[in-house]
Amino acid sequence: xxxxxxxAPDVELKNVDGKVVKLSTFRGKKVLLSFFPFAFSPVxxxxxxxxxxxxxxxxxxxxxxxxxxxxxxxxxxxxADSMDVDISLLSDFDKNAAKSFGVLRPxxxxxRAYFLIDENGxxxxxxxxxxxxxxxxxxxxxxxxx
Length: 146
Description:
5-stranded mixed beta sheet, alpha/beta, single chain, Glutaredoxin, globular, 5 helices, two-stranded antiparallel sheet
């Protein structure tokens, strides 16, 4: 598992338009990677609604929120469109990101996990939920973003 103080793996994912995006594309920005199990599941839907409600607080701290799931980019696009989510959602359909970050569950989907990546691509904060059916409160995330 990737730990605080280590360089984040530079994996390739697909955005909602099916274009390949490398995590290094975000260098120069603070990014909160939010690994989520499945689009349209109840907790994930609630989680991204909360992110949208608190988006200005994340922006005020200079942080871009990026969601990553093992869903296809088509499912992520439908999820984003259905919720009017203005957050980058990336498909980890081949599960490389979940494996590289050490959050792939034996069932084939990711843990619900959060990684704050700094402008240089270093992991500055991480939290892996005990159960994927639970989410971290945004206030807890915001408290840990410096």
